[in-house]
Design brief:
The complex is a heterodimer of chains A (about 675) and B (about 260).
Chain A (H helix, E strand, L loop, with lengths): L2 H16 L2 H35 L1 E7 L2 H13 L1 H4 L2 E4 L5 H6 L5 E5 L5 E5 L4 H28 L4 H5 L12 H39 L2 H5 L5 H46 L9 H26 L5 H19 L19 H11 L5 H27 L1 H4 L24 H26 L1 H21 L4 H4 L7 H25 L12 H6 L4 H31 L2 H15 L6 H18 L2 H20 L1 H7 L10 H30 L1
Chain B lengths: L1 E17 L7 E18 L4 E5 L6 H8 L7 E7 L5 E2 L2 H6 L1 E5 L10 H11 L4 H14 L15 H13 L5 E5 L7 H16 L3 E5 L3 H7 L2 E6 L2 E6 L1 H7 L5 H14 L1
Parallel strand pairs in B: 3-8, 3-9, 6-7, 7-8
Antiparallel strand pairs in B: 1-2, 1-4, 4-5, 9-10
Helix pairs in contact in B: 3-4
Classes of the chains: A mainly alpha (about 675), B alpha/beta (about 260).
Chain lengths: ~675, ~260
């Protein structure tokens, strides 16, 4: 990828999009003018209607004894505050006709058995308001009568009517109430505004470009397909992000204005202030999520619209996409739906739930990371599909869709090839998604057996993928016999890495106090499983599967294309990121670095498999036999490491790594000689 | 110099098939066919090659493959630059080719100057050099008066000149024009013909397809006639006319087409 060409392309795409009136309209005019006007205008309109209703005088007539009418006249004047409306009694001759002619809004009739009917017209707003006001007046009247009768009987009104008293008290802070309200509304606004921001530019750069006939011009330029797609993709993402932010800020501003104006009218007697600054962390996190989500939305929109030949056609294709996204965002309306490890991987839903949680002040960094990762994974998948589509001449030259090949037939693939970066990304995305959906389901359904299935997925995926693309398995997976001395060196390296991880864990303890609470459901489940099975599923299977995937497929591919430093670092980073925990990422990263170095230096995956197995075996033993191990390695169980402890750890670590390094290297030199 | 080595392009088309069973059901089937079928030729520096053929003969597909807009199903395209290097990489090929067809529209929302600057950046030309070239092209093509107008506001003739400017900005060695004079008035068409002649004189290679046989007769050094994806006649206009015993290229073209259709 040539950066100079990329930026030139990106600049052109952005300039082209920004000169499109449709985009500018949806991006600027709607959020900055229309939303605030609508929201504030509506609320002003509503409050004027409400107050005009309150000021209105409602006319009622009484077809009862005069005494009752007199009672009500006093109630209407004395309890005007309780009733909320001004009611006046008028005399009419024919009640039904008067009501029909709207001379009166309601009338009261006493029936033969001493009951009353409140007659009104439900079809008329004014009449409905009048009858509900009458209803409150009747409640007061009944209460008065009740008190009167009790007093007449010589009893105490208060003890008889209110033997106990109670009242509600809301202990949640005003911020929490506001957050709850915002949390249920914001996800929908955010998702829809990103969607609206992305959809027109996405159509413009795909179908619009075809319609204007500039796609063939673009194809005459010396740019690769990847540069072309990425520039389009980035341009649309940027526009989607900016327009979504404009939307959210203008909408948020309008809502803050509404809340504070309605609060200030109540605040006179309650003295409420809202500390809006408490929302700042939530808003910042929301902005980050929005950026990642914009990538996904852009990729999906572009994938859909690229099939269309014209703007109009693309609009039709975009409609179902919009509906799906809107339904996804409604999830926050379902009570008890929360962000969990499972829902965090469902596209759209995860963003809606995460944003809802952020406004309700629940920050879970682990789940936050999963949401971001899964959005990146989905976007990458969508971009890869987009790349395949843009590679297809049938789509570019509008010759029908039937000949697009998203997956090349195995028989068309050449023998003994090495996979590329695209293959690594695709494989990782597939593994991640399979673990999330199949793995999590299996774990919930079958418990420990599900864990084995999850490990099986990790083990099988790289093998099947490598088989399908007819990769040179021996070279890709570094399948090479390894000398015992090299294994020993790798083990030393592994010990060094393990101690390094302990050290980092100790250092990070003050930063992430949660990391001590590492006991998960899984750990609880493990105590019931026999040791032999634990060793198989927790130590042996990951040692083989994860090594095949990371030190095998990923490192094997990178080794072929990148410098050694880049290969080792990227492999380690992917390995750490794959464990989906911000807190454990550092410790796992250190162990991963040790494993990667062992595999890279020895040139054989067998070395890192051994070390990985030993590392996981140790974890199994710690959880199974804590007492015995505490006697042998007390350092593993220390709650806090002192400075001296850390220094000793660091020293042992350095010694371990150096011995390991020397053992592996010396072996290599011998081979050279 | 540009070389086409045994170029083939396969497409799919849908054909309706009548089934002979009891139920007469129309069934559509996919069928593969060659739009370009084993075509090889070579165009030298300072030469104008005309590609002639009826509609659907495969002219556009052939030119698209030569311009690396399409990948051939088999065969390859090769360019030899002035230093004698052979280039086959698609991105590098495109750097030495100026491609123009009826489908290569311009970016309507940009001005001609903005578009040329943008192209210059993509071709990785220095900023000062781009400014110089744009000034020069503006003078040569007499487009200084509308360089800063948005392209959507230009007339047909002005747009055509802007299109030529687009092909010129990277000073390519080879020009590939797909029916460049189609639908233009006499003045604009003459301007393009003169442009091609001027480029030939500067030692550039020009390939172009056309339906205007009179134009091809006096402009081209060599002509290739294609029919159903195959080359059916090749040679200089004079040669072809002599072989067909025709007084002009139009008659020669008719004879060739009658001949191949009879086979």
């Amino acid at each position: 990828m040539n950066m100079k060409r990329m930026t030139a392309l990106l600049k052109r795409e952005l300039r082209d999009i920004l000169r499109d009136k449709k985009t500018l309209f949806t991006m600027v005019v709607i959020p900055i003018l229309l939303y605030p006007l609508l929201i504030i205008g509506m609320s002003v309109l509503m409050s004027t209607i409400m107050s005009s209703q309150a000021e209105k005088t409602y006319l009622v007539a009484f077809d009862t004894e005069k005494a009752v009418e007199k009672e009500f006249e006093t109630i209407f004047t004395e309890n005007k505050e309780d009733i909320g409306y001004q009611i006046e009694i008028v005399d009419v001759n024919n009640y039904e006709e008067a009501l029909d002619a709207e001379e009166i809004d309601a009338f009261v009739r006493e029936t033969a058995d001493g009951a009353y009917t409140l007659n009104y017209l439900s079809a008329k707003d004014k009449s409905s308001t009048a009858v509900s006001a009458l209803g409150s007046a009747f409640d007061l009247y009944r209460e008065n009568l009740r008190e009167q009768k009790i007093e007449d009987a010589g009893l105490d009104v208060e003890t008889l009517l209110n033997p106990i008293s109670f009242q509600r008290e809301d202990l949640s802070s005003t911020e929490e109430s506001v957050g709850n309200l915002l949390g249920s509304m914001m996800p929908f606004f955010i998702i829809v505004s990103i969607l609206l921001g992305a959809i027109y530019p996405a159509i413009d750069v795909t179908a619009g470009e075809k319609e204007r006939g500039t796609l063939e011009t673009l194809l005459t330029l010396p740019v690769t397909n990847f540069e072309m797609i990425m520039s389009k993709f980035l341009a649309v993402s940027v526009i989607a992000c900016v327009s979504a932010m404009l939307n959210v800020f203008s909408m948020g501003g309008a809502m803050v204005f509404l809340v504070s104006s309605s609060m200030s009218s109540m605040a006179d007697n309650m003295n409420i202030t809202i500390h809006y600054e408490t929302f700042i962390p939530g808003i910042l996190f929301t902005l980050i999520v929005m950026m990642f989500f914009a990538l996904l939305v852009t990729a999906v929109c572009m994938c859909t619209c690229v099939f269309a030949k014209s703007f109009k056609e693309a609009n039709n294709y975009a409609t179902p996409v919009m509906l799906i996204f809107m339904f996804g965002s409604y999830v926050t309306m379902i009570p008890d739906m929360e962000l969990t490890a499972q829902t965090a991987a469902i596209p759209i839903v995860n963003v809606a739930l995460l944003v809802e949680g952020l406004f309700q002040f629940s920050y879970n960094y682990g789940l936050f990371a999963i949401v971001l990762f899964s959005n990146v994974a989905y976007s990458l998948l969508a971009i890869m599909i987009l790349g395949k589509i843009y590679n297809s001449e049938a789509v570019l030259f509008s010759e029908g869709l039937s000949s697009i090949k998203l997956v090349s037939k195995r028989s068309d693939i050449k023998e003994k090839q090495m996979p590329g970066f695209g293959d690594v990304i695709l494989l990782l995305c597939v593994v991640l998604l399979l673990i999330f959906y199949v793995g999590s389901y299996a774990q919930i359904k079958w418990g420990f057996a599900g864990v084995a299935i999850q490990q099986g997925i990790i083990l099988l995926c790289p093998l099947v993928y490598a088989w399908y693309i007819k990769a040179d398995g021996k070279k890709l997976f570094s399948l090479k016999p390894v000398k015992p001395l090299q294994i020993l060196g790798s083990v030393f390296m592994g010990i060094g890495a393990f101690l390094g991880a302990l050290l980092i864990g100790g250092l990070l303890m003050p930063v992430f106090p949660d990391s001590a609470e590492g006991l998960t459901q899984l750990d609880n489940m493990l105590t019931e499983v026999p040791v032999s099975l634990l060793v198989l599923v927790v130590a042996l299977m990951p040692a083989i599967g994860e090594e095949l995937l990371f030190r095998g497929f990923v490192m094997g591919t990178l080794k072929n294309k990148c410098k050694p430093v880049v290969t080792v670092l990227v492999t380690t980073l992917i390995f750490a990121a794959y464990h989906m925990s911000l807190i454990k990422m550092f410790t796992i990263g250190i162990v991963g670095l040790g494993l990667t170095l062992a595999a890279y230096k020895t040139g054989s995956i067998a070395a890192s498999m051994c070390v990985h197995f030993l590392n996981n075996l140790l974890s199994v033993l710690i959880s199974k036999y804590p007492e015995q191990l505490q006697k042998i390695f007390p350092v593993l169980f220390k709650e806090k490491l002192g400075i001296s402890g850390m220094l000793i750890l660091a020293a042992v670590m350095i010694v371990g790594v150096s011995i390991g390094w020397m053992l592996i290297s010396s072996r290599k030199e011998n081979v050279k000689e | 110099m540009i070389v086409a080595n045994d170029l083939c392009k396969q497409f799919e088309r849908t054909v309706l098939e009548q089934e002979n069973g009891k139920k007469k059901k129309k069934k559509s089937k996919k069928e593969k066919f060659y739009a370009v079928n084993h075509v090889s030729f070579q165009v030298e520096q300072g030469e104008i090659l005309g590609i002639l053929g009826p509609n659907g003969a495969g002219k556009t597909t052939l030119l698209r493959m030569l311009g690396s807009l399409m990948l051939p199903t088999s065969g390859s395209v090769e360019i030899e630059d002035q230093e004698g290097n052979r280039i086959t990489d698609a991105v590098l090929l495109k750097r030495s080719i100026g491609y123009l067809s009826g489908n290569t529209k311009l970016y309507h929302r940009l001005s001609t100057r903005e578009m040329l600057y943008m192209l210059g950046e993509i071709y990785e030309i220095d900023r000062e050099e781009i400014v110089r070239r744009v000034e020069e092209i503006g003078k040569v093509l007499d487009m200084e008066s509308f360089l800063d107008n948005r392209i959507e506001k230009l007339s047909t003739g002005q747009t055509q000149r802007a299109s030529i400017a687009r092909c010129l900005i990277h000073e390519p060695d080879i020009y590939i024009f797909d029916e460049p004079t189609l639908g233009l008035d006499i003045l604009s068409a003459d301007a393009i013909v003169n442009f091609m002649k001027a480029q030939k004189e500067r030692g550039k290679t020009v390939l172009y397809s056309t339906h205007y046989l009179e134009e091809a007769q006096f402009l081209c050094d060599r002509i290739i006639m294609i029919y159903k994806g195959r080359i059916v006649r090749e040679g200089s206009p004079a040669q072809i006319m002599e072989e067909c015993k025709a007084g002009n290229l139009r008659d020669a073209f008719h004879r060739v087409m009658e001949e191949v259709e009879a086979v």
